[in-house]
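Re: that backbone. Tokens:
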């Protein structure tokens, strides 16, 4: 089928997802669940969490994760966290049903990433302090781990050295609080 070309190629990007949606719209036929699951497995084996999200967005079929690949799901979570992509992490947690088990060190790295990596949250390069504080709240909520005193000091120093407006935005939000 036409779906096999998009799903079985090993990577699924935004373009492939658009083709899958268009095929469903034009033909009225959804891809077979087995084919979608095969696509998830191939994407998971190579750690392509973006493809997992695109395939889910295009098909609405949640991945069925075999126990032996749960470690690969955790690797995807680590990648999202280290890139500051907290909304992607939240979606992956929802669609995979696999609990977050990455360790506190990774979570602390995620807090730093939210502030330091451009394009975190899919925002423009200069995400506002308010948006970054919200991402930190989300990561706290998802992980159950608060930023350590060391991480907080590092973030405060980074903000003070980088942008006065960031400090004001975070302080106006009442700090990081709870989610």
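Recovered sequence:
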């Amino acid at each position: 089928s036409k779906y096999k070309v998009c799903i079985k190629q090993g990577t699924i990007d935004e373009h492939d997802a658009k083709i899958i949606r268009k095929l469903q719209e034009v033909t009225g036929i959804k891809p077979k669940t087995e084919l979608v699951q095969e696509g998830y497995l191939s994407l998971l084996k190579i750690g392509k969490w973006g493809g997992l999200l695109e395939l889910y967005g295009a098909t609405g079929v949640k991945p069925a994760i075999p126990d032996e690949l749960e470690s690969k799901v955790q690797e995807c979570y680590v990648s999202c966290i280290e890139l500051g992509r907290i909304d992607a992490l939240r979606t992956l947690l929802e669609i995979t049903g696999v609990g977050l088990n990455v360790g506190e060190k990774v979570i602390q790295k995620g807090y730093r990433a939210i502030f330091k990596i451009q394009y975190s949250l899919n925002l423009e390069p200069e995400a506002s302090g308010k948006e970054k504080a919200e991402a930190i709240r989300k990561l706290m909520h998802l992980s159950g781990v608060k930023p350590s005193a060391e991480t907080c000091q590092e973030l405060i120093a980074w903000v003070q050295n980088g942008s006065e407006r960031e400090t004001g935005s975070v302080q106006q939000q009442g700090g990081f609080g709870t989610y």
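The radius of gyration is 18 Å. The first helix runs from residue 2 to 7.
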